[in-house]
Design brief:
The complex is a heterodimer of chains A (about 290) and B (about 280). By secondary structure, chain A is an all-alpha fold. Chain A has a single domain, classed as MetI-like fold. In chain A, strands 1-2 form a two-stranded antiparallel sheet. In chain A, a hairpin with a 4-residue loop joins strand 1 and strand 2. In chain A, helix 2 packs across helix 11, helix 7 packs antiparallel against helix 8 and helix 8 packs antiparallel against helix 11. The model of chain A has no long low-confidence stretch (mean pLDDT about 90). Chain B has eleven helices and no strands. In chain B, about 50% of the residues are buried. With about 280 residues, chain B is mainly alpha-helical. Chain B is globular and about 65 Å long. Chains A and B meet through helix 1, helix 3, helix 4, helix 5 and helix 6 of A and helix 1, helix 3, helix 4, helix 5 and helix 6 of B.
């Protein structure tokens, strides 16, 4: 009886979080309606609140981060799931786990003071000079930008990607690998044509799960994304995410509408991440479980 | 050897090199973050002042983060006192009793693990700050507890599931009720894994900033009273790093170093415990 009550806490929390945020954001929801999601202006002084810059910033930073992190994450998974080489695997596995253990705020300080200046000088400036005419890569380059935030996000979602893809690759039936090798397939042919196609669904799931983490990541992104509430025109422009604007503005928000608008951003964020997590769990489970 | 096979082998070696190369790339940021945190953090963290004093205005020497260390300890302590018992009972319940509820709990825990910590902060603000009209360490602790709970549930479940069925069956054969089997036989056998999970959850909570921004809020002064606003190491790192003052930035690096050192110790120690537990469970 008591244990059942304790067990109920987690599911109740999920419901309570959604409910509480929904109720608290009601003043903004009723005032702005669905137009809130498409408004491009965020001006607390004139009480104009549009979420589009934050939604675009959140989606863009997460998408770029995943594009950068997925190839590396899959490579890590292949190495970690390879038969043999226990010492190497142990070292890489520990390294990736420690990467996950470093607090977000530490990534933030490091990204702000070490990575951003380096990336500015050695990536952003040369790219803008040579490829600025494309538009999406136009300048002026800045240390705190959508690109810097995406890069630090890529590092932060790597452990999720690597660890879950590893489980998925490991769950591929041994017979497949052995058959491929027995037929004379090379290392690359075995992995590329047999293992990865078999693990595709689960790796996709790992990517979706990592996307969920990236969308909700707050502190490190807040420190390097530039915090400007405009839809970014270039990946080197400053941007803003749902999580960052809540972190920066919630304690300063006064009146009935402003905090409610921020709470509505929180509601959007949590509904999207919950949905994405559910999808990812389904995908990962389907590809890990039948092998057991 | 036919030319085609030479080509195949060359492609394979190249691709394999690329895959191992990318794996090495994955570990570069870890090395760089650790290195820069140590190098930039040591100047601040090698002063005794840093660990015994509280914040001081810019330009006054002898500033420290003692209040934030104590604040972190108190908030994580309270959070653990709430989340660990709940999570352990919930996790044992998942394995030992199963059923439809277990599926719902597992799903909820998995979804909660992925919940953005900033949204948890908002939730805690509405429930534990707004009704009292002021920020408090207690609200921060409860926000952290919500973050810890799913981690404790899932790690407890993992550790308990490792315990062989024979142990349960022996207990039941001796006539013990199921709850006593769960609490007095299975849980003690799974203790190392459960404790590890709790430690990892505490480490995660200790490194969180976002849920504390509008719950614990931060405090420039010494306080051990959880009804007052309370500082924490991650809050110090966040606020001080974004100031233009070199002395405060150094303080931020110092606090980051303390955080990272704590994380490393907890994580490496827990890995060691888990490995022992697995070996032990294998013998059982």
């Amino acid at each position: 009886m008591l244990t059942t009550a304790a067990a109920l806490v987690a599911p109740l929390l999920v419901l309570a979080i959604v409910l509480v945020l929904a109720v608290q954001s009601a003043p903004a929801v009723t005032r702005f309606g669905p137009g809130f999601l498409f408004g491009t202006s965020w001006n607390p002084v004139t009480l104009e609140f549009g979420a589009l810059p934050f939604i675009v910033g959140t989606l863009a930073s997460s998408a770029i981060a995943l594009a950068l992190a997925v190839p590396v994450g899959v490579a890590v998974a292949l190495v970690l799931a390879e038969p043999g080489a226990r010492g190497l695997r142990g070292a890489v596995g520990t390294g990736v786990e420690l990467l996950a253990a470093i607090p977000s705020v530490v990534y933030g300080v490091w990204a702000l003071y070490v990575m951003a200046p380096f990336v500015y000088l050695h990536v952003e400036v040369p790219v803008v000079q040579r490829l600025g005419w494309t538009g999406a890569l136009s300048g002026p380059p800045r240390q705190t930008s959508l690109f810097t935030a995406s890069l630090v996000l890529a590092i932060m979602v790597l452990p999720t990607l690597g660890a879950i893809s590893r489980d998925v690759v490991r769950a591929v039936p041994k017979g497949l690998r052995e058959s491929a090798v027995a037929l004379g397939a090379t290392w690359w042919e075995t992995n590329w044509k047999v293992i990865l196609p078999a693990a595709r669904g689960g790796i996709f799931g790992a990517g979706v799960l990592a996307l969920g983490r990236a969308l909700g990541e707050t502190i490190a992104v807040t420190m390097v994304i530039g915090n400007r509430p405009d839809v970014p025109a270039s990946i080197f422009a400053p941007a803003y995410t749902l999580a960052s604007v809540i972190a920066n503005e919630f304690t300063e928000a006064t009146g009935p509408v402003y905090p409610a608008a921020l709470l509505e951003l929180g509601l959007v964020l949590i509904l999207v991440t919950f949905a994405i997590n559910l999808l990812a769990l389904l995908l990962v489970r389907r590809s890990v479980e039948p092998a057991r | 050897m036919p030319a085609r096979n030479v080509w195949r082998r060359a492609t394979s070696s190249l691709a394999r090199g690329a895959v191992y190369g990318l794996t090495a790339v994955a570990l570069v940021p870890l090395g760089l973050v650790l290195w820069h945190t140590v190098v930039n953090g040591l100047p601040a963290a090698t002063h005794v002042d840093f660990f015994v004093n509280v914040e001081r205005p810019v330009g006054i020497p002898g500033a420290g983060v003692a209040h934030a260390i104590v604040g972190s300890a108190i908030m994580v302590g309270i959070a653990s006192a709430v989340a660990v018992p709940l999570g352990v009972v919930s996790g044992v319940n998942l394995v030992e009793f199963g059923g439809g509820l277990a599926r719902a709990v597992r799903l909820a825990a998995d979804v909660l693990v992925g919940a953005p910590s900033i949204a948890i902060g908002l939730f805690a603000y509405v429930l534990f700050v707004a009704p009292f009209h002021h920020f408090s360490g207690m609200a921060g602790a409860l926000a952290l507890a919500i973050l810890m709970l799913p981690v404790v549930i899932r790690t407890t479940e993992g550790a308990v599931a490792l315990i062989p069925a024979g142990l349960r069956e022996s207990g039941l054969a001796l006539g013990l009720p199921r709850w006593r089997v769960a609490l007095q036989l299975v849980l003690p056998a799974a203790a190392p894994g459960v404790i590890t999970g709790a430690l990892l959850a505490m480490a995660r909570a200790a490194g969180e900033t976002a849920p504390l921004l509008f719950t614990g809020f931060g405090n420039r002064f010494w306080t051990v009273d959880p009804t007052q606003p309370m500082s924490a190491l991650p809050l110090i790192v966040f606020h001080d790093a974004l100031t233009p003052y070199p002395s405060l930035q150094q303080q931020a690096w110092g606090a980051a170093l303390v955080l990272v050192a704590a994380m490393l110790v907890i994580n490496l120690a827990s890995r060691w415990v888990v490995r022992r537990q697995q070996r032990f469970a294998g013998q059982l």
